[in-house]
Amino acid sequence: MSLDTPHTEIRRERLTAHEALQRLEHERASRLAQLRAIAEAAPVGEEQVMSTQKDTVHRVLTEVEAAFARVRDGSYGVCRNCSQPIPVERLEILPYTPFCVPCQRHAV
């Protein structure tokens, strides 16, 4: 493509199930690697910090597993609050999110 050719990007409204599953598998593998790294690093005297980190990673893993269930039941990519499609750009960044940005802001 030359530099003077206008670039028109087709914006998709949803990720395919295959794309979603790939992203979720990557998230799960990353979080499991984090848990292993936390367990291996475990500095003496910092048990509370390590416990908090583990809790956070476990929470995200739970969210990832819930996203897998949404892919299976066909509700993946639809906001649980307003039932509108979650923008594909958001799902590319945070593939396990159950909310669009406006609803996430209200949920926090």
First-to-last CA distance: 44 Å
Which radius of gyration do the C-alpha atoms yield?
A: 18 Å
What is the CATH architecture term?
Up-down Bundle
**Average pLDDT metric:** 86
| Residue windows where pLDDT falls under 50 for at least 5 positions | 1-10
**Fraction in helix:** 55-70%
Largest sheet: none
Class computed from helices, strands and strand pairing: mainly alpha
CATH superfamily: DksA, coiled-coil domain
Written as H for each helix and E for each strand, in order along the chain, the element string is: HHHH
- Strand tally is 0
Number of helical stretches of at least 4 residues? 4
Shape: elongated
Please name the CATH topology: Four Helix Bundle (Hemerythrin (Met), subunit A)
Q: What is the top-level CATH class?
A: Mainly Alpha
**Approximate strand percentage:** under 5%
Structural domains: how many: 1
Verbal overview:
The termini are far apart. The model is unreliable at 1-10 (pLDDT under 50). By secondary structure, the protein is mainly α. Helix content is 60%, strand content 0%. Helix 1 packs antiparallel against helix 2 (47-73). The chain has a single domain, classed as Four Helix Bundle (Hemerythrin (Met), subunit A) (Up-down Bundle). The radius of gyration is 18 Å and the shape is elongated. The chain has helices at residues 17-41, 47-73, 88-93, 101-107. 13% of the residues are buried. It has four helices and no strands.
